[in-house]
Write a structure and sequence with these properties.
By secondary structure, the protein is α/β, with parallel strands linked by helices. It has a single domain, classed as Alpha-Beta Barrel (TIM Barrel), CATH 3.20.20. The chain has 8 helices and 10 strands. α5 packs across α6 and α7 packs across α8.
């Protein structure tokens, strides 16, 4: 059994180097919900140092809300928004000698696309037009994964060890008190369960290809280290997408 271990990173939290040795893929903020040209270059260089695969992490243009406020944007404008952010990270990565491997939307853009088929298709279309060889990462079982498959993209269904789920397989809103798993030990146990059992999404069992840890979690670095160790102890190989 194998799984990718990714992290939403480069969001100006300042813990990137503490996390990077333990992950296999980095979802790098592209300046809209967090980060800027300097943080993108710094994070890309760290990924190169630790041999971590990189991908774009585009979000709504919402630094005040960290990209976690829902927005209503036309599909054409969503496509442009995603293309712009992928392109920004691509340029920096190319100069540093790295290629993008995947695209994973952030925050509200990600969660809205998990349910909104038009939004999901706009994101998938942007990824395919930029580079059809990129992998589209989305919530396992969601509309975003379905849109990626329909577009002919490689897809990776994602699970969240540091988050709790609703009964339908969607993530509990961050407005709820129990949205986040706080303890690194709990996060590690949840990671193994997701890797081995997947999730129940709308009444069907769905495999998880990649596990996401949030870089802005209070114990982000501890989570990354413990999750990696516990996965390996459980006989699960950790490999990039």
């Amino acid at each position: 059994m194998k799984i990718d271990l990714n992290c939403d990173i480069g969001e100006s939290v300042g813990n990137e180097e503490a996390i990077m040795p333990y992950i296999t893929s980095a979802n790098i903020a592209c300046g809209f919900h967090a980060g800027d040209e300097v943080s993108m270059r710094r994070t890309v260089r760290l990924a190169k140092k630790y041999e971590v695969a990189i991908g774009a992490h585009p979000g709504w243009k919402d630094k005040e809300g960290f990209g976690r406020r829902e927005m209503s944007v036309s599909p054409d404008d969503v496509e442009a928004l995603v293309l712009y952010q992928i392109g920004a990270l691509y340029a920096i990565a190319k100069v540093e000698g790295l290629e993008l491997r995947h695209v994973k939307p952030h925050g509200a853009l990600y969660n809205q696309a998990a349910k909104d088929k038009l939004l999901a298709k706009a994101i998938a279309r942007a990824v395919k037009r930029f580079n059809p060889d990129l992998t589209l990462v989305g919530l396992a079982g969601s509309s975003l994964i379905e849109a990626g498959v329909e577009a002919g993209l490689r897809v990776a269904g994602e699970g969240f060890p540091d988050r709790n789920y609703n009964s339908d397989g969607t993530l509990i809103s961050r407005r709820e008190r129990n949205a986040l798993l706080e303890s690194p030990e709990e996060v590690a146990i949840h990671a193994v369960k997701l890797a081995k059992e997947g999730i129940d999404f709308s009444g069907r069992r769905v495999h998880v290809d990649t596990l996401c840890l949030h870089g802005d979690h209070p114990y982000a670095a501890q989570n990354a280290k413990l999750v990696r160790n516990v996965l390996k102890e459980s006989g699960i190989d950790i490999l990039a997408l």
